[in-house]
TrEMBL record:
Taxonomic source organism: Vireo altiloquus
Alphabetized GO MF terms: DNA binding; RNA binding
Gene encoding the protein: Exosc5
Regions crossing the membrane: none
Protein name: Exosome complex component RRP46
SUPFAM superfamilies: Ribonuclease PH domain 2-like, Ribosomal protein S5 domain 2-like
Subcellular location: Cytoplasm; Nucleus, Nucleolus
Length: 185
């Protein structure tokens, strides 16, 4: 029940202060459902920007600006992975050149050690640790990992393996969505 609206603007002319001579300057803005963005949103913006920069072939658009605006519509848990998925779909839909696709998967590590994928807000509160991964479509590489709480190295590896398996379902969803969008004529 978590939903995020994504808008992508650019590549467009960049302000001189933000212009990069060798690639596009990527800006990510995360807008909360209510109120002004705070420290948490700024931190997530940085994670999202770094993940997007890892796949966007910005060298093909030097001296330009790309702005990605993510508006939170509802947050019922797994917000960061929802933002990652919305960001990737926006990049894909805008036709920007990408080295790979990526998806976000959130795992909640329960007190008894069980792993829950795509946890709700309540499940996140009860969890011992929450791990969010950005996984690339090429070789299921990890582009970003964010953890909250405590877990052992083995538990983190188990969560990562579960997230990499779950990524297949998200990439299939991307394929189905693109197929539906472009097959209507």
């Amino acid at each position: 029940d978590t939903s995020v609206l994504a808008g992508l603007y650019g590549p467009a002319e960049a302000k001189i202060s933000k212009e990069l001579p060798d690639r596009a300057a990527l800006e990510v803005l995360l807008r909360p459902k209510v109120g002004l963005p705070g420290v948490l949103e700024r931190s997530r913006e940085q994670l999202l920007r770094q993940t997007c920069e890892a796949v966007v072939l910005g060298v093909l658009h030097p001296r330009t600006a790309i702005t990605l605006v993510l508006q939170v519509l509802s947050d019922a848990g797994s917000l960061l992975s929802c933002c990652l998925n919305a960001a990737c779909m926006a990049l894909l839909d805008a036709g920007l050149p990408l080295a790979a696709l990526f998806c976000g998967v959130t795992c909640a590590l329960q007190p008894d050690g069980t792993i829950l994928l795509d946890p709700t807000a309540r499940q996140e509160q009860e969890a011992r640790a929450i791990l969010t991964f950005a996984i690339a479509s090429s070789e299921r590489k990890v582009l970003m990992a964010n953890t909250k709480g405590s877990c052992s190295v083995e538990e983190m590896q188990q969560c990562l393996a579960a997230a990499q398996r779950a990524a297949d379902a998200v990439f299939q969803f991307y394929r189905d969505s693109v197929r539906r969008r472009y097959s209507k004529s």
